[in-house]
Amino acid sequence: MAHEDPISRTTGGTAPGRRAMLRGSLAASAALSLPALAGAAPSQALSGRPEAKWGVQAGDVTASSGLIWVRADRRARMQVETSATESFRRARTWRGPVVGPDTDFTGVTPLRGLPAGEQVFYRVTLADPDDPRRTGKPLHGSFRTAPGRRQSVRFLWSGDLAGQGWGINPDRGGYTIFEEMRRLDPDFFLNSGDTIYADSPIAEKVALPDGGVWRNVTTEEKAKVAETLAEFRGNFRYNLLDSNLRRFQAQVPSVVQWDDHEVLNNWYPGEILDDDRYKVKDVDTLAARSLRAFSEYHPLTTLPAKDEQGRVYRVVHHGPLLDVFVLDMRTYRNANSPGRQEHDPQGILGETQLKWLKKALSRSRAVWKVIAADMPLGLAVPDGKTDFEGVAQSDPGAPLGRELQLAELLRHIKRERITGTVWFTTDVHYTSAQHYDPSRAAFKDFEPFWEFVSGPLNAGGFPALKLDGTFGPSQPFVKAPEKANTPPSEGGQYFGQVDIDGGSGELTVRLREQGGEVLYTKVLQPGRTGQ
């Protein structure tokens, strides 16, 4: 997110230390079902059978495959069983890896040859690798595989979790928005980035504007900005203290991408920090450590846990109606700047990723091509007084800077006659809908399209940003707070819902606010442009 983070930039030495770890959570620990030893290294666990206290999750599920994730409290062999029934009759067994300290005791087991369009029940068992008879209690989960034919699809999207110091609040029951989303029974959740806030320490208490106090569950790793691999791992582990999130992830598979706060606010490759909170000033070093932890704590097909140079961008096929193109607008970008370059081949995606995206879109035969961007296109997201963080840069004229790369992509989509492209994003901590049309634009060589914004999940809200007129956006809907860093206790927590009808192929977008209200609805017709 491009806004300055008030808490993360000023917390300094006020965050709790080792003795304060988990202070403030004890009164509600039963309700939140916090894993024991949450902030401790698994090597400190008591003797006994292996346990998986951080839940299970599935990721990148297709019509025939998926990934299952778990974290153990010590070295253990991961085993997965799958079945068409909850009774696990005729279960199939998948032998997983031995998890250990090299991956922070996390592991992923790939599942292949699954039936299309079916509910799959799974359970994960951890066994002592030296004595397979010593096993822990199985953890259960389920997911639906993508359909092999035209069947209705539902997915949700959002992002921005535990930002600006607003963490797991036991007084509010934790991250209750995940329980609200779980009840909608989506086929998957598109997590659009800022899955953690590595640069936002979580203090024990935060003063609220109305004079009240926001209480946080805290851990040692969240007491300062993340710099070491252990601290980045602890940031990802922090969110798994929440029982709502663990329950959600056991039922709803994810498609995950990253944005800036997995490392730090507004970062770009090659950046050298001028921030007294950091001893490590080289952002590339921080990003490599974060990417490793990110790959360990999320099941992604393109990111083996040991591959620090792996890629986040990929396409996830979800049956004949839907392909999801997951972008990485962080790893390959150039430095943030005023964005007035007349030649900019690197842009925000890098040349290699742009070539991949153009080719992948051309090859797609799905009715809908969802482009999951971790930053919005036409919102001018500032980085300081003169630079810009995203694609737009407040100049409504012909494309310049990173806009040149977007213009190239939009031109390709038009000339290849690629239909059904819709953009989904988060990052800005409010919700809105933008329609881009060449009749209103300075650059006209593209077909009209929609972009939808949602989030945050549990973070501060921020005022709406200005539109950049280069690609002719209009904004039929926006809801944003008037003040920066509005706390979640004042509302303003958002997620989006997308339903694709298996018969008509219509795609319906609903922008929702926590509490159940649908704020805005848009129905798009398949195979058309200019809607």
From TrEMBL:
Residue ranges occupied by any Phospholipase D N-terminal domain in the UniProt entry: 55-145
Signal peptide feature range: 1-40
The PhoD-like phosphatase metallophosphatase domain, residue ranges: 161-511
Keyword annotations from UniProtKB, A to Z: Signal
Record keyword rRNA-binding present: no
UniProt keyword annotation of Signal present: yes
Pfam families given in the database record: PhoD, PhoD_N
Protein name: Alkaline phosphatase D family protein
Organism: Streptomyces marispadix
Organism phylogeny: Bacteria, Bacillati, Actinomycetota, Actinomycetes, Kitasatosporales
